[in-house]
Structure formats: structure tokens, C-alpha cells
């Protein structure tokens, strides 16, 4: 009898499930073949570059940005754009490693948000090196010990990372990419009860980003700024009276329980990171240009710098000032403009800036981070 639960015939749902599993197996085999074909193409690209170029460049940020933008736009679902981007990033990372392995320095130790940003941008097939300071990351790239570096530049709630900005004053390195990463801080500690916590360690910006939660939940615990959140987790792993504000990656790496997740004061807490290298980046179609300007301390000097940008209709997304470190009360201005320095509007604007500013230094044009 049709629909009889005691019938010996398999139900339609079971037949459909078996067919779907067979279809998935066939698709997996096809995916594997296509991925292998892509990898072989990457190896062929490397051979062509080595035969035709004396100093071949294997990693092209603009090329990767174009690919990721295209697959997001063409994505039919149901996988999200973020998921598709993550999958293709890893595919490109593994294929690039077949062409030429990349060495990337970042502000460490392991488990920092800068480490996560490096993995997000380059994938897991690159060789990464954690360094103790932003200066050390710049130095590693400048001396060729790393091809690229990853450093934080600004946080959505606490503003610019001044140390990174200052490093650009004396560096010839170029910005060749950016990464925007949501920042979620967790309280990590071996203490069974929060009342046992005597000290909370984290980077100064992390402490500031969790100020309200700490005031409410750990008002009597001493707060101590350390070089990084990962370093805080490393210390907390050895002392049950210490808690650290750090990422889930740090909790996993240092094997510390998460006693309170998501303790940041703002749910939209986000940090922007820069990729630094020695070469320039070609236009990708959706770029940003960072510029450093100096001008004499005279009435209207800042207006004269901003006027050509406003009149050209170029979008100014960031402006920061820092002491010049040469003359008291003279400042260096850092600007982010939407567009590439090869774009006619940006090129003309830069020419006008050179006519009005004392110095103009283009820090780099690079693909805007995918949201």
C-alpha cells in the first residue's frame, strides 16, 4: 500500500538522499579535476614568467583583487560572498605557492589580529613570520627578509595607529593592499571565577575598546598594556590570576578557556590593516591611493592642500596629521583618496598638490579591501 511505513520499498526521501549523495560525489570528482587543472596552469604561468622576465613578479595584488571581485559578482549562491571569497583566496594561495612561495612578516606573536589579517589576505599557503614590533616588520621588508608585511593602521573606534603612520615618514616601502577585519575580543583566563582575576592584560587599544565591559565586570582588576593581545594570552596561560583580551585564535593557540566572549564595547568594532611591499601595484578597478604631504605652518596651508581634492570631486576617505619631527609645530598630513594614481583625476590632483605643498610622497595605490 502506498505510503505504508512498513513497506519494504525505500521511501522517496531515502531514494532522493542516495541520488543527491551520488551527485555530490560526482561534483567532488569534477571539482578536484578542475582544481588540479588550475594548479597546472599556475605552474605553467611560473615557467613562462621565468623564461620571459629577468626578475619575474609572481604575486600581483591587483590581479587577485580582480579575481575575487569577479567571483563575488558572479556568485549565484547559496554560498555567501564572504564564503566564496574565502574559498577562492585559499585556492589562489595554494596555486601561488606552486609558482613562488611568499614570505610575509606581521606584527606578532602568533594569534594577533594582524596574524589573522595576514591569513585573510594571503591565505594559509604563505610562510609567515611574527615580529615583535611594527618597526621590525618594516625593516624585514626593506631588507628583503620578507617580501611583504602586514601592519595595523586604524581602528573604527580608537582611530589611527600612530606608530604605523610614523614608520612611513622614513620608509621607501609602498602600500600594496589593505585588509578590513572585524575585531572580537574575548576574555581568556584559567581562573575558575572572575573574582580571582587580579590583572587584565592586552594591547592598549584593546583595553580601550573593552573599557565599558571591564568597568562593569572587572572594576577591581588592574589593567596593564602589553605589546600585543597574543602576548597577553601567552602570559595569562602561565598565571591563573591574569586574564587576557585576545582572539579565539589566541585562545586556541595558547590553550586558554574563553570565560567571556565578545567583550568589546561596540559590536561593529573593526580594524584596517595595510600590506606593505617594495613594488608598485597596477590599477585593479577599485583602488585607493595614500599620500603623505608636508607644508609650512602658515594661514590657509591646509585649505590649499584640500582645495584641489575638493574641486576635482575625488573622495577623501581619511586625513591624519602627525608632528613632522623636524620642526616644532610643523605637521605631516596623511590622506587616503579613492582612485589609483594612474587615473586621470588622481594624477591631475597630485600635480596640483605638488604645486602647493612643500613635499608630496605617494605611499601607494592599491586595491580597496573587499567588504
UniProtKB/TrEMBL annotation:
<dbReference type="Pfam" id="PF01817">
    <property type="entry name" value="CM_2"/>
</dbReference>
<dbReference type="Pfam" id="PF00800">
    <property type="entry name" value="PDT"/>
</dbReference>
<dbReference type="GO" id="GO:0004664">
    <property type="term" value="F:prephenate dehydratase activity"/>
</dbReference>
<dbReference type="GO" id="GO:0004106">
    <property type="term" value="F:chorismate mutase activity"/>
</dbReference>
<dbReference type="InterPro" id="IPR036263">
    <property type="entry name" value="Chorismate_II_sf"/>
</dbReference>
<dbReference type="InterPro" id="IPR002912">
    <property type="entry name" value="ACT_dom"/>
</dbReference>
<keyword id="KW-0511">Multifunctional enzyme</keyword>
<dbReference type="InterPro" id="IPR045865">
    <property type="entry name" value="ACT-like_dom_sf"/>
</dbReference>
<comment type="function">
    <text>Catalyzes the Claisen rearrangement of chorismate to prephenate and the decarboxylation/dehydration of prephenate to phenylpyruvate.</text>
</comment>
<dbReference type="GO" id="GO:0046417">
    <property type="term" value="P:chorismate metabolic process"/>
</dbReference>
<dbReference type="InterPro" id="IPR002701">
    <property type="entry name" value="CM_II_prokaryot"/>
</dbReference>
<keyword id="KW-0584">Phenylalanine biosynthesis</keyword>
<comment type="pathway">
    <text>Metabolic intermediate biosynthesis; prephenate biosynthesis; prephenate from chorismate: step 1/1.</text>
</comment>
<dbReference type="InterPro" id="IPR010957">
    <property type="entry name" value="G/b/e-P-prot_chorismate_mutase"/>
</dbReference>
<dbReference type="InterPro" id="IPR018528">
    <property type="entry name" value="Preph_deHydtase_CS"/>
</dbReference>
<dbReference type="InterPro" id="IPR036979">
    <property type="entry name" value="CM_dom_sf"/>
</dbReference>
<dbReference type="Pfam" id="PF01842">
    <property type="entry name" value="ACT"/>
</dbReference>
<comment type="pathway">
    <text>Amino-acid biosynthesis; L-phenylalanine biosynthesis; phenylpyruvate from prephenate: step 1/1.</text>
</comment>
<dbReference type="InterPro" id="IPR001086">
    <property type="entry name" value="Preph_deHydtase"/>
</dbReference>
<keyword id="KW-0028">Amino-acid biosynthesis</keyword>
<dbReference type="InterPro" id="IPR008242">
    <property type="entry name" value="Chor_mutase/pphenate_deHydtase"/>
</dbReference>
<keyword id="KW-0057">Aromatic amino acid biosynthesis</keyword>
<dbReference type="GO" id="GO:0009094">
    <property type="term" value="P:L-phenylalanine biosynthetic process"/>
</dbReference>
<keyword id="KW-0456">Lyase</keyword>
<dbReference type="GO" id="GO:0005737">
    <property type="term" value="C:cytoplasm"/>
</dbReference>
<keyword id="KW-0413">Isomerase</keyword>
<protein>
    <recommendedName>
        <fullName>Bifunctional chorismate mutase/prephenate dehydratase</fullName>
        <ecNumber>4.2.1.51</ecNumber>
        <ecNumber>5.4.99.5</ecNumber>
    </recommendedName>
</protein>
<keyword id="KW-0963">Cytoplasm</keyword>
